[in-house]
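ESCALATION

Customer reports they have been waiting on this structure for their group meeting. Please prioritize. Original submission:
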Amino acid sequence: MLDPPRPASPADIPLQLVLRNLFAATLFSSGIAPAVVGCGLIRKPLHQTTLLAQAVAEEQPLHELHRALRSAPTGGGRPTTPITLPAEVDWGQDVIETLSAALFATPAALRTPGRT
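Update from on-call: job pushed to the front of the queue and completed.
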């Protein structure tokens, strides 16, 4: 789990997002971790922390956790695909940051227990 803190300036968020995802991809491709989730960079991370804790406690599949992390700005439902953002949405409002939660995982790490 990569959950970096939010930078002081919204102008730094895009670079931090790229660096977080680059580190996540590098860690995943090293073979050390079968799955890496990247989140964070938001003002109030308590919601994401709660989702993570619930997912671990309930042994939720990673793809469900990823969907939940990305659904926060859409009111808790599934994000629409493709995602259409209003023109007034910008970095620092937590919408883009939340939708940018990343998941790198092997097929085995994505399997739901009890299913093949």
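Sent to customer with the following note: The mean pLDDT is 86.
Escalation resolved.
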